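step 4 of 6: structure.
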Amino acid sequence: MENTGKMVICPNCGAEFDVSLIRCPYCDAGYAPAEEEEYMGQLEEIRKDLEGHKNDGDKALKKGLGTVARYVLVSAVVIALLLFAIMWITGSIEKSRADRRKEEFLLNQGVTMQQEDSTK
Ligand SMILES: [Zn+2]
């Protein structure tokens, strides 16, 4: 048995054994500093991995927000142009309608006047 000089006491049977052993050689209880270290190392890796993902997520979120902001801005400009175009077209139609009504009115008046004039 390799002796590192560090001994631990088995939490199960109380026997003393080398710290490098994964299990108690007497009762096979799973006291495992080496295993624990490995486990903690894995946890640390997972934690770092999660932090990395979190940072990636933040970056992705910021990038996403930037894209959304640009999209919203472009949409707003397009909508404003559309509204302007609709208002302009509607205004033109209304204006032409009004002009036509005015022309019709004047024409009717003119015809009526002409008729009145002709009758006189
Ligand atoms: Zn033991």
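step 5 of 6: annotate
 - The longest helix spans residues 33-119.
 - The chain is about 70% helix and 5% strand.
step 6 of 6: archive
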